[in-house]
Amino acid sequence: MVVYEDVLNSLKETSRTFAIPISRLPSGLREAVMSGYLCLRAIDEVEDHLALDNPTKAALLRAISRTLQTRFDDGDLPAVLHSHRHALPDVTLRVGDWARLAPTTIAPRIWEATAAMADRMAHWADNAWTIQTEADLDHYTYSVAVTVGLLLCDLWGWYDGTQTDRVNGVASGAACRPSTSCATTPKTKRAAWNSSRLAGGMRTCSAMPVAI
Questions:
Q1: What CA–CA distance (Å, rounded) separates 137 from 172?
Q2: Which of 124, 113, 126 is nearest to 69 (CA)?
Q3: Residue in 93, 88, 95 with CA at minimum distance from that of residue 110
């Protein structure tokens, strides 16, 4: 069983910015969002890891994805990460805890989003994040950030029936990812991106409507 204070501490360690608003959500929704955020952060740490080569990243991400698509037990996710336990951060090694944190009636949706994103990240690791056109950037943006926007739409609908504009959910992720990628992406990944195309994609995204 995952203790709330332990989860909150993990949130603070990974992002104090997100920890504050997430911790203030109503009970039920709070645990679902915590689970989703930490699961996605767990795989993001694999994608951005500076010491792992791309084939290793792809293999780990696909192993996480496949496991989440099964009737996994508590030890299954730690097992697929065991051989790299000394290199991976705690938030990744505990992805099984985060997956089990979500309320049972919404947990499969969070697992599905995490599995889908991990599989897409593996594709981009295999291709060294080669982005040459705006279409490539759109593809990468949808592969990762848009998944978050759509998951949040579903979490609100599950919690109290709130119907959100899913088109705006897509636009929100599309607008955020290029700028955060420029700020946080390891140089090895950024080097594969064509800067002029990336800038053009950011201008395109900035013109999209964003849900507040």
A1: 15
A2: 113
A3: 95
Pull the structure tokens for residue 138.
Answer: 């759109």
Q: What is the mean predicted confidence (pLDDT) over 119-127?
A: 95
Q: Residue 188, CB half-sphere, CA atoms under 13 Å: how many? A: 12
Q: Are the CB atoms for 138 and 174 separated by under 8 Å? A: yes
pLDDT tens per residue across span 168-187: 877 776 666 554 554 445 54
Which amino acid, one-letter code, is at 8? L
Token pair recorded at residue 202: 């950011």
What lies within 8 Å, CB to CB, of 14 at 6+ separation is 38, 41, 91
Q: How far apart are CA 177 and CA 114, in angstroms?
A: 17
Judged by DSSP in three states, 156 sits in: helix
Q: How many Cβ atoms from other residues are within 10 Å of residue 159's Cβ? A: 17
Helix (H) or strand (E) holding 173: helix 166-184
